[in-house]
Amino acid sequence: MRTVKRAAWLAVLVSCVSAVTAPALAATPRAPKTAQSSPNRPQNPVTAQGAAQAQGASQAQAASQQAGRQQSQVTLALSKVTPSAITASGKNSRFTLTGTVRNNSGHTLAGLSVRLRYSSHRITSRGELAQYASAAPSRLPGATTPRPLPQAAAANGTQTWKLGGNAAAVGMRQFGVYPVGVEVINSSQQVLAGFTTFLTFTGNAGGTQPLSVAWVWPLIDGQHRANDSTFIDNRLATDLARGRLSTLVDAAAATTTPITWAIDPALLDDVQAMNQTYLVKRPGTADKGTRTPANPAARQWIDKLKRASKGDPYFVLPYADPDAVALVRYGDSMARHLDIAYKNTAVAAEVLGRAPTVKVAWPPSGMAGPDTLDALSRYGQIGTDGAFLLSNSAFQENPQGYTTSATTAVQTKQGMRRVLTYDDTINDIVSSGTRSPGAAALAEQRFLAETAMITAEAPNLRRTLIVVPDRHWNPAPEFAQRILAHTKSAPWLKAVDLQTAIKAKPQARVFTGYPDAYEAYELGPAYLEQVRRIARDVALFSQVTAEPVRIDYTRAVLRMESAAWRGHGRRARAAREELARELGAHKAGVKIIPSQNALAGSSGRILVSVANNLRDQNIKVRLEVTSENSAKLQIGRFPAEDLVLELGPGEKVSRKIPVQAAGNGNFRVRLRLITAEGRVFGTEEITVRTTGYGRLALLITGGSLAVLFVGVGVRAMRARRRRKAEAGGDGSTGAEPAPIGAMAPASGDPGPPDVPGAGAGSASPARDGHLPGNPPTFTGNP
Predict the structure, then answer these.
(1) What is 717-765 written as a DSSP string?
(2) Tens-place pLDDT, residues 330-371
């Protein structure tokens, strides 16, 4: 499995590079730990031979520990090996190794010196090469005369050293790889530091088929935005100006070696977003964020990329490089997100000004099972002219012993699809840390040795090697440039582009599938479940947005599914929560404004308002009004088009909805906002109160009040006139005086015919001229 191979290779590389990067330098292989017996534990009887072996192991361990203490005193680094390929004669028949030694002990190291170790034995296999790489240089039989290092011998001293030799003198006779080493020793001939590297001898390589090498140059980064408007860090600004992304573009621009770019459109999308003012907000904090002006490095990097990649083929990953294996494992609901990711790749063509020229699907870690390959083939439209890019660990090793050519094929539900396999060992060499002193030179020599060894395994076969550094490759600038130059200049290599490899004849290989151990490195189901919930809310929100769409969370969800979050659970969770918070705030910006409504009768209209509090986005929803008890409160007819609401940013609209009540009481009315696809976006409830006073009752009551007011007014006017008359002193009752000679009617006589109610038995008039209990009347002529 690739994990085991990678771990083994890293262990080998550390043993080689420790001379460069760490104070403790392995001069000899460290002895394995042995079980130590407790002095209080009873011992089993052992033979004399067994006792001697145990004692020897203990002594070896003690010697190893002593060597480790000595190694910490000195740091040895390799700076350069020239030439990169050694010939049988001429100026390139001599080789030179250059490097530095530093005394870390803090005191003088008497007799400090450096010497070259070598072997005339030509390495015969890649396995043997790996053994030499992990071994101490003392394994090599030949040694030159030590050269003193007086400057390095002084406390904290540093000195440059140079060692060399002649190809013939060290026994180089045939094309192939030869091991060499460098040791630092003290006056007691103790090895304080050392490393093993390799020289490639071209010899008489006539008739050898050169190894075709195709480079995939990754332009992929981590995710920097929670949503489209908020960056969760500002690391990208540094990487564009003077970091790994700048190094990769500059190295490609400095060479004519063919390369094929692997580009994540999300990276170019992020860079474009930095061309204008952007917000940087640390997720999981109360910080409101910092408005950052447009970054000039973003525009400069885009311009450099266009120049460096001009004429080079490139392919795009699905947007944000999703963890395809994890999405497919989760189920169809998430696997379909791969389709969305592929449909959001157009940003790469927009930035570069040209469409992708190669169709390649590269799953995370270069490993995928049949279901994932089928999904990538279907959604990525990897037809017969495209290919998968997979690790060679996904296939059985060649039983014939030599490294197989890169092109093969696998069966998918879409049919047979081509596969380009890349060599794990080569990739680990190239992707190893090369920024520490000396590490780059060791990696260069190992790369040349491995490719020469592959060529020498089957010199008459035409084969292709694919080199694919890790997705987040961070090489030393000089290493990235030199490794491309070596690919073109080494006589046993031939640089080609990826399309040439795709068109090569496939070699039959057995596909072993996806190792179960890799599942532990995927995005987990609990994390993806949270992302799925956010995706569901995003789909709902997108259904209420209207053109022009300025708030879109589609790409934000894809960024949450990126394989770059592997191993970064805490940061991934913080970014996801920041996205959920922002989305929730935008959803809450489209809402129904509840109000209290009362009906003074059995029918009327209720007021309903809807607000769009989003600053930059138009929305379109349909208002749905339903009664909780339709038997007692019915919603009247209303033009359907009046319930489809289109609101601009910050706009609020109201609608009066007719209702009919069958009695008195409080009735619940449910208000819902419905999306264009019929999903419920928001819900509110209001209470409608009815009193039972109908329109006729109101008319009667109003008429009665009008009569009352008129009567009161007339009575008030008469009273006023009477008071005026009394104030004049004539004793008048308010009526005109009777004619002379007229007599009042006798008791019991009927009154005048125009006096209603007068008659026999009526009481005498009161002093104000009114009859008790009757409305006021006039006597005589008005």
Answers:
(1) HHHHHHHHHHHTTS---SSPPPPTT--PPPTTS---TTSTT--TTPPPP
(2) 999 999 999 999 999 999 999 999 999 999 999 999 999 999
**Alpha helical stretches, state H, 458-561:** 477-489, 498-503, 525-542, 554-560
- Most distant CA pair in the chain, distance: 175
Other C-beta atoms within 10 Å of 67: how many?
A: 22
Distance between CA atoms of 569 and 431, rounded to whole angstroms?
23
Residues 6+ apart with CB under 8 A from 246: 239, 240, 301, 304
β 387-391/360-361 pair status: parallel
- 478-502: b (≥16 Cβ within 10 Å) or e: bbbbbbbbbbeebebbbbbbbbbbb
Residues 6+ apart with CB under 8 A from 639: none
Q: Tell me the two tokens of residue 767.
A: 């002093």
Which string of DSSP letters, residue by residue, matches 329-382?
A: HH-HHHHTHHHHHHTT-HHHHHHHSS-----EE--GGG---HHHHHHHHHHTT-
Cβ atoms < 10 Å from Cβ of 317: 30
Instruction: Provide the CB-side half-sphere exposure for 119 (13 A, CA).
Output: 20
Residue 713, CB half-sphere, CA atoms under 13 Å: how many? 6
CA–CA separation, 750 and 760 (whole Å): 6
DSSP conformation class of 23: S
The answer to whether 75 touches 184, Cβ cutoff 8 Å, is no
Q: Please say whether the beta carbons of 623 and 652 come within 8 A.
A: no
Whether pLDDT at 196 is above 50: yes
- Coil, strand or helix at 598: strand
- Comparing C-alpha atoms, which of 653, 648, 655, 683 is closest to residue 545? 648
**What is the spatial distance between Cα 494 and Cα 464, in angstroms, rounded to a whole number?**
9
Distance (Å, whole) CA 67 – CA 25: 9
* Cβ neighbours for 19, distance < 8 A, ≥ 6 positions apart: 25, 26, 75, 76, 77, 78, 182, 193, 194, 195, 438
Question: Does pTM surpass 0.85?
Answer: no
Point out which residues pair with 150 in neighbouring strands.
Answer: none
Q: How far apart are the first and last CA of the chain?
A: 125
pLDDT tens digits, 653-678:
999 999 998 888 889 999 999 999 99
CA dist 656 and 638 (Å) reads: 9
**Cα–Cα distance, 283 to 352 (Å, whole number):** 31
Instruction: Determine the Cα–Cα distance for residues 480 and 255; give it in Å rounded to an integer.
Output: 10
Chain centre to alpha carbon of residue 780: 105
Other CB atoms within 10 Å distance of the CB of residue 287: 10
pLDDT tens-digit readout, 248-283: 999 999 999 999 999 999 999 999 999 999 999 988
3-state helix, strand, coil in the chain (%, to 5): 35, 25, 40
| List of long-range contacts for 302-310, beta carbons under 8 Å, 24+ apart | 302/268, 302/271, 302/272, 302/351, 304/246, 304/249, 304/250, 304/253, 305/219, 305/249, 305/351, 305/352, 306/352, 306/353, 307/253, 308/249, 308/250, 308/252, 308/253, 309/252, 309/261, 309/352
Q: Computed from CA positions of residues 179, 180, 184, 188, in that sequence, does the dihedral angle turn out positive or negative?
A: positive
Please give the torsion angle defined by the CA atoms of residues 379, 411, 425 and 135, in that order, rounded to the nearest 10 degrees: 150
**ω into residue 737 within 30 of 0, thus cis?**
no
Q: Using CA atoms, how far apart are residues 121 and 126, in angstroms rounded to an integer?
A: 14
Check if the beta carbon of residue 316 is closer than 8 Å to that of residue 348.
Answer: yes
> How many of the other CB atoms lie within 10 Å of CB of 745?
11
Give the 3-state DSSP-derived string for 531-583, with helices as H, strands as E and coil as C.
HHHHHHHHHHHHCCECCCCCCCCHHHHHHHCEHHHCCCHHHHHHHHHHHHHHH
Instruction: Name the nearest CA neighbour of 623 among 615, 633, 614, 611.
Output: 611
Distances (CA, A) of 6 to 217, 495, 694, 754: 20, 26, 86, 128
DSSP state of 322: B
Whose structure tokens read 């090895």?
191
